[in-house]
Amino acid sequence: MQNQQKKYRTRHREAIISYLQQHSEHSFSAYDVNEYMQENGIQVNLTTIYRNLDKLTESGAIMKYKTAEDECCRYQCVKPYAHCYEHIHMQCKVCGKILHLECSFMEEITKHLYEHHKFLLECGGSVLMGVCEECQIKVQDKP
Question: At what angle do helices 11-22 and 30-39 cross, to 10 degrees?
Fold first, then answer.
């Protein structure tokens, strides 16, 4: 008999999944999840949070990447049928919102990178930083 890992949901995992559902449009860190747990009176250590995030990453429910600015691990939800491993992501530096670059440009850039630079693009965990349209408008509207 093979040793199969049990697939059950603990109270901590349920709380993490609740956090993911509420923050599906933004990237987050383990510390963000920990802060959410504390605010909701859920006693959990950071190691448990990391372990659950690693399991969710392995299952494909979330993506993990490191930021260039502080080399902190960030996570983002993978939406069903979003093909997040097939396109680049854009993140707003102001509000943290994640946008998906899901257009024909992806084929063009992938082809260009390989043909002109012999670089094979891997989109999983890719993030371009910038400012989203909503935040640009907010900045323009301020006196």
Answer: 110
pLDDT tens sequence across 91-133: 888 877 777 777 778 788 888 989 999 998 877 667 788 898 9
Block residue for tokens 């448990």: 48
What global pTM score does this model have? 0.61
**What is the C-alpha separation between 109 and 28, in angstroms, rounded?**
27
Residue 58 corresponds to which tokens in the numbers above? 């392995």
Contacts 24+ apart (CB under 8 A), 19-22: 20/56, 20/61, 20/62, 20/77
Tally of CA atoms within 13 A in the half-sphere of 64 that contains its CB: 16
Report the DSSP pairing between strands 89-92 and 98-100: antiparallel
Cα 26 vs. chain centroid, distance in angstroms?
A: 7
**Rounded CA separation 67/60 (Å):** 19
- 139 CB-contact burial (10 Å; exposed 0-12 / middle 13-18 / buried 19+): exposed
Question: 119 φ, ψ to 5°?
Answer: -115, 120
CA–CA separation, 49 vs 43, rounded Å?
Answer: 11
